[in-house]
Amino acid sequence: MPARRLPVAGARLGAAKLSRVPDATGVELIDLTVPITSGMPVYPGDPEVAVSAALTVADSGVNVRRVHLGSQTGTHVDAPYHVDDALPRLDEIPLARFAGPAVLLDARRYGPGAEIGPEAMPAALPDGAVVVIVTGWSAHWGTDQYLRHPYLGADAARALVEAGARTVAVDAASVDRTTGPDEEFTLPAHQILCRAGAVIAENLTGARRLLAARDAGHAIEMFLFPLALAGSDGAPIRAVARTTRQGARAPRP
Q1: Can you give the pTM of this predicted structure?
Q2: How far apart are CA 221 and CA 214, in angstroms?
Q3: Could you tell me the residue ranges of all domains in the chain?
Q4: Euclidean distance between CA atoms 81 and 79, whole angstroms
Q5: Who's near 101: CB < 8 A, 6+ residues apart?
Q6: Domain spanning 27-34+71-244: which superfamily?
Q7: Backbone angles phi, psi at 208, to 5 degrees
Q8: What is the pLDDT of residues 49-81, one digit of tens each?
Q9: Following DSSP, what letter does each residue of 150-204 receive, concatenated?
Q10: Which range is least confidently modeled, 26-30, 44-48, 146-150, 239-243?
Q11: 191 or 14: whose pLDDT is higher?
């Protein structure tokens, strides 16, 4: 979800610790998900995140957590319905849209608040590709600097649609520019992508590791499966990349 203003609630939260699970086949799993914790940053008007004990072993024989959060909490996906009531809701989107081979766009050269233009976009994409825009901005998670992320300009969003993008992910608060409280709230990149039927994943963390894997010649697959929230605008996800060493065979799902 795009941010008008993202307050830092609670203590500063660093980037998530990445889970890497190497095995003899040359396959690794990389967790790209911000942990869901009480007091984590939320957008104005969104529910504050609260995680607490609902049941305990001592009192009830089991541990059960009570979780209160919004549909746009942390690492999440936006369905097209997020920007228009007439567009598809989360449960109307094929599951295939949330997984596929990664196409990485290295946007680390763009500074704070910079517009990423169409020159950085690919001319064409393979079928089913998940475009991952790597800004490196997850290093600023939980700070005011996080709001000054690079963003997709309208021309870049149109270029992605023309190249065939239907799934776009970013390691920043939004694909759009984060506007201040006194600025007009507009979402050109969201509007262009969502009206083309694309889903958007935001707040990935540690995506720079994917660039290292790509440069080492590894194949990369993305998995961005959301919670099954019926009729929703979006949902938190567990974003995971599976990298496969050149010459190794990826395990069957």
Answers
A1: 0.88
A2: 11
A3: 27-34+71-244
A4: 5
A5: 126, 128, 129, 130, 219, 220, 221, 222
A6: Putative cyclase (3.50.30.50)
A7: -60, -25
A8: 999 999 999 999 999 999 999 999 999 999 999
A9: -EE-HHHHHHHHHHT--EEEESSS-SSPPPPTTS----HHHHHHHHTT-EEEE--
A10: 44-48
A11: 191
